[in-house]
Design goal:
CATH architecture of chain A: Alpha-Beta Barrel
Order of helices and strands of chain A: HHHHEHEEHEHHHEHEHEHEHEHEE
Oligomer: homodimer
Largest sheet of chain A: 7 strands, parallel
Helix content of chain A: 40-55%
Structural class of chain A: alpha/beta
Largest interface: A-B, 32 and 32 residues
Number of helices of chain A: 14
Number of domains of chain A: 1
CATH topology of chain A: TIM Barrel
Distance between the termini of chain A: 29 Å
Amino acid sequence: MSLKNDLILRVARGEKTERTPVWLMRQAGRILPEYRTIRNSVSGFKELVETPELAAQVTIQPVDILDVDAAIIFSDILVIPEAMGLTYEMVEKKGPHFPETINSQTDLLKVEVADPDRLGYVYKAIEITKNELNGRVPIIGFAGAPWTIFSYMVEGGGSKTFSKARRLLYTDAGMADQLLEMITESTTGYLKRQIQAGADMVQIFDSWAGVLPPDHYTRFSLRYISKICDAISEVPLTVFAKGAWWAMEEMNKLNCQTVGLDWNMNPEEAKRQLPNKTLQGNLDPCALYGDNDAIKTAVKKMLHTFKGHPYIANLGHGVYPDTDPGKVKYFIQSVKELSLSSSFPQPEAPWQKRVYNKNADNPLIFKSYSR
Amino acid sequence: MSLKNDLILRVARGEKTERTPVWLMRQAGRILPEYRTIRNSVSGFKELVETPELAAQVTIQPVDILDVDAAIIFSDILVIPEAMGLTYEMVEKKGPHFPETINSQTDLLKVEVADPDRLGYVYKAIEITKNELNGRVPIIGFAGAPWTIFSYMVEGGGSKTFSKARRLLYTDAGMADQLLEMITESTTGYLKRQIQAGADMVQIFDSWAGVLPPDHYTRFSLRYISKICDAISEVPLTVFAKGAWWAMEEMNKLNCQTVGLDWNMNPEEAKRQLPNKTLQGNLDPCALYGDNDAIKTAVKKMLHTFKGHPYIANLGHGVYPDTDPGKVKYFIQSVKELSLSSSFPQPEAPWQKRVYNKNADNPLIFKSYSR
């Protein structure tokens, strides 16, 4: 079925659009009372993730309620370690916990490259969502970056420093590479199946990019993200590496269309260092705690900052759980209205249009293009 | 009494020294079995902090055992909120917890500018340490940066996002400024008393710098750090703002002698953006999990990187609790040996020597100086 609103896909490809598209990381979930009703009807977070009908329902909620320009499938990045053989529990208010972890060569025997079929519930949720959305907005699929998934598998849960995971990079880089390679392969297969099921775009979340020193980031994270980017050419791909401000120049070379920016990143630097990428995000999620006037001012500033560069409006992090949904709506509405006005034109300068060609060896072919 | 080893003070002032000085953040504490013996002899962490004889003992331990070039007084940055009227508990394995927090104008009535006399146990610990060290190495005093202290007072403990603290900057900037001002005044008085008691150098730790967007960092953190820097001219001062890589150019303008670098920061950028500052730190604390050969290689690389710039060797974060003290010793030994060798000369290029003048309005007077 054809999409009625494909703004986000066109901007990802560097095309000129009538206004700036907008969605929010973690838009499906905790901020909506409608989500909490469904969440309370099941035994736990994982049951919700694994029940396609319900996952589809909460995926569609922000499209209905908040009027965002894309739906992101309700799931969790930790389904990959689970599909590899390492189960996790989601502990209420504490986060994920892995009873077993990977810390040695022997531990590697506990896991294998994931059979993509094990994650059928995700593809099913995408299919239901696709069917129910009926082309209203595109669906974003996603996965964790190999380094972030590795961190959880080694550490066993969240951590302030992820020093157990980082330790392995110094003590057994060979073993770390083996595990990262297995995660990369698992993730690639998983993303391809999400796309087959109907994902119109995919995003890689490198949530713990920021704990690595820059040289390790290149060596143990970007290297594997790059492999995934090279393998996925079916749909536009976004890489969001939270905290990896130092890697922008390298990320400009990735085979991806869009780069996500957290709220610490300097937009001017991002525009300079990522000339070939559509940019996404950047607003401090705490800005939505301000009053409507402050939100409007922040949106104006943001649109002004990214003026002239293909841009998808979003926050610099997942929306915080205690954000008032009314403020989120106001934010989305402001982006839509203000970006339509003549003060914030879409790129007008000659822009390197990215011609999207899924059959090319390199899906990014640059062509000079005057708007 | 005169100092037998004043390397760190001379490097802080930009003077040429015979080798690179070295110490570790959190060197007094968890990594040493000798510390744990003393820690287990008291009821809790806070009792240790508040007992000057014991605090002095654990302060001196790393000088005896690890052979570092400076002692940092054993204490906690949270003594300031406590002296302001907000008590905290240190929960084993969880971190600090404040039963009461500051979240509104009314809450401000719970606190006042700290009477420096309330922290007599810290000054006493410094005096005992000074006496017992008998000039072997300088003593570093410290305090948290106002923003970091503010974060704890508003949030009530550690947090991944400090979104409650950051929320206030959007919802009640005026109240935030009032609290930050009170913390700044309290901290200035506290540092001055540490110096009177014998601290030869002081360091400001902005542990949660990295959660702020750059414009808020300038507005709500650096602004108050700058006030403290302007008020302290008795001894060299170090500012360590973890995660605030974007603020280097602004930090170069601070009235401080040394800037600390975390392990994410790019040393080349730091040298370029902080030409007037001595630099400190930067090695990934996880590097000490590697074997001795790897540690030596890392030290060589580090000394090579900072060659030609006044530099104090340190990690980019506090040493992690599970680090082998033998590895720490090897690290310290390697810095000392390798920096003595001819391959890693101290700055030779014409360097802007910072003439240290405690009576000048601005303690930093630059003079061209050829080594």
